[in-house]
Amino acid sequence: MIIMTINEQIAEGAKLIVLTQDTDEQITVPKGVSLVLDLAGFTLRGDGVEHTILNNGTLRIIDSSIGLTGTIYNNVKSKACIFNNFGGLLVVDDATLTRGDVSYYCLHNWGENVTINHVKINISGNAAAISNGFYTPSKENPDKVFVSMVIKDADITTSGSPNACVKNDEYGVMAIMGGRYVSQSQYAVNSWNELSVTGGYFESVASKPLVCGSTPSSGGHCQLKITGGTFKGATGIMDDCSEGQTSGDYVAPVWAITAGSYNTPIEAAFLGDTMEMSLLPDGTYGVAMVPKNKWKVVKAPTGPGLWGFLCGVYTKEKVDYTAGGIELSFQSITPVALLSVAAEGGVTGYLNGNKLQLFRGGAEVSGEIKNLTVAVIGH
Q1: Closest CA to 158 of 190, 112, 192
Q2: Where is 70: in which H helix or E strand?
């Protein structure tokens, strides 16, 4: 009986291939080919030279074993367990991905789309477990093609000194909908382009669970949207690695954080003018809308005479002003002094207790005031 290799079966037009034993073979799915690969509880180890799986076509990976022990392994420098190439469509229903202590990803996507329904990764090394996008787009992606990845469920733990559990690189568009992501030493998620998070658990044992940024030299534009999930960090929640970069085609990051649970407050700069952190009964922090006419705490200024003082900022696109002033709730701030007032039409202001009085040309204003921003210091 002649036993055909996996690549021979693909060349013969097989649409479903089921592993029957642990296999040392590099697999290439050609462009235009559709294949379902069933790991069936066995391990695919590659050939020790290339990516274990190189997908140029349409590939779905499943594991029909009861214990879901099917595994894809690679231990080659700069090679992945799965590499989804340009134009490739990849679905991972069930698989464990693992590698030796080498500096490369378990799954790397340059293809049109990857959907991960369930994957398990527990690794050490110097690279993220999963990467979506391009590290050096000028060389790797001269046509500026955007690639997408949806992670519905994953269980990823990294140790040693990897960059992250998941990395969304330049020209990557990623959605994380659930799963568990724990990094022992670095960020859990690292994003340099569009990322949305609707659920999941994200933890960094030694750092912060999130880092995002825009990179002008390679066209990266960070857009982060969080509408769910649990985030736990040792030194905070998020870093912005684009701070100070204003050259070239730089576009400032866009933050849209409207929900989630956090073990420590997110810096107000990441929340925008309409959202604030709220302490929950379990000791964690949530995100809530800033109530109308409520002062938002921003940060504690430093400098002589300001130690321990808080800064409150109140913004409204439109205010219907009546004589006597606007009464505002100062949250936890006891106001001490007015720092600044800005509004359209040369408006100035004075603080009288909890009331803000506005004037124009020496006379108290009346009617609609547009784009009002007021800052105070207090304690």
Answers
A1: 190
A2: none
| Cα distances (Å, whole numbers) of residue 282 to 79, 238, 263, 285 | 44, 21, 10, 9
Q: Which residues pair with 276 in a beta bridge?
A: 288
Backbone torsions φ then ψ of 9, nearest 5 degrees: -65, -40
Query: How many whole angstroms separate alpha carbon 273 and alpha carbon 251?
Result: 19
User: How far separated are the first and last CA of the chain, in Å rounded?
Assistant: 84
Q: Which strand (E) or helix (H) includes residue 102?
A: none
For 218, the 3-state DSSP assignment is: helix
Using DSSP's 3-state secondary structure scheme, residue 9 falls into: helix
pLDDT band at 306 (very low <50, low <70, confident <90, very high): very low
Alpha-carbon distance of 19 to 53, in angstroms, equals 14
CA dist 179 → 33, 105, 123, 187 (Å): 30, 18, 16, 16
Q: What is the pLDDT of residue 355?
A: 78
The DSSP line for 273-312 is: TTEEEEE-TTS-EEEEEPPTTB-EE-----STT-TT-EEE
Q: Which amino acid is at 289?
A: M
pLDDT per residue over 31-50, tens digit each?
A: 999 999 999 999 999 998 99
- 216: pLDDT strictly greater than 60: no
Query: Would you state the pLDDT for residue 92?
Result: 98
Share of the chain above pLDDT 70, in %: 83
Distance CA 179, CA 119 (A): 9
**3-state helix vs strand vs coil in the chain, percent to 5:** 5, 45, 50
The β-bridge partners of 107 are 82, 130
Q: How far apart are CA 361 and CA 378, in angstroms?
A: 28
Type and span of the H or E element at 19: none
